[in-house]
Amino acid sequence: MALKSLEDALVDELQDLLSAETQLTQALPKLAEKATHPELKAAFQEHLEQTKGHVERLNQAFKLLGKSPESKTCEAMKGLIKEGQSVMEEDAAPNVMDAFLIAAAQKVEHYEIASYGTVCTWAETIGNEELADLLGETLDEEEETDDKLTELAEDVINEEAA
């Protein structure tokens, strides 16, 4: 697709995000299974349900733009998930593994926060407030998940791993 306008770039980035979120729906159950701390397991399971909702919102976003939902492989997410999988293969004490899992998950969250921040700004710039609001809901959830992981790491997991 030729990128001739900011809307074209927005559609391209939404295609990338659709791939990223779809990949994440496959990775989160593995993180939840590997986690040993009950709160961390629950956080991963909760975020899986949110991520399914993110896919639905992205489908709505395409409709708001008059486009068919289509994804293009998100290489960044592919790499982040591959890195997370290699972490899960490490021989680590359970609490240390939980700390590693949080680190891997937060890398994903930070990528998503940056991506959703961009598409929200672009939607506002092209004057599509409905789209900006829709994508902003996901941005808020990604930030909340990141905050929850930080709190869990700082208040519990890191101390137990130390």
Core attributes:
single chain, 162 residues, mainly alpha, Ferritin, 5 helices, 83% helix, 0% strand
Could you describe the 3D structure shown?
It is a single chain. The protein is elongated. The chain has helices at residues 6-34, 38-64, 75-88, 94-125, 129-161. It has one domain (6-65, 73-161): Up-down Bundle (Ferritin), CATH 1.20.1260. It has five helices and no strands. The mean pLDDT is 96. Helix 1 (6-34) runs antiparallel to helix 2 (38-64), helix 1 runs parallel beside helix 3 and helix 2 (38-64) packs antiparallel against helix 5.
CATH architecture tag = Up-down Bundle
Q: CATH top level?
A: Mainly Alpha
What's the CATH H-level superfamily name?
Ferritin, core subunit, four-helix bundle
Total DSSP helices: 5
What radius of gyration results from the CA coordinates? 17 Å
Secondary-structure element string: HHHHH
Roughly how many Å apart are the termini? 50 Å
Layout of SSEs?
Elements: H1 6-34, H2 38-64, H3 75-88, H4 94-125, H5 129-161
Helix pairs in contact: 1-2, 1-3, 1-4, 2-5, 3-4, 4-5
Short account of what is shown:
The protein is mainly alpha-helical.
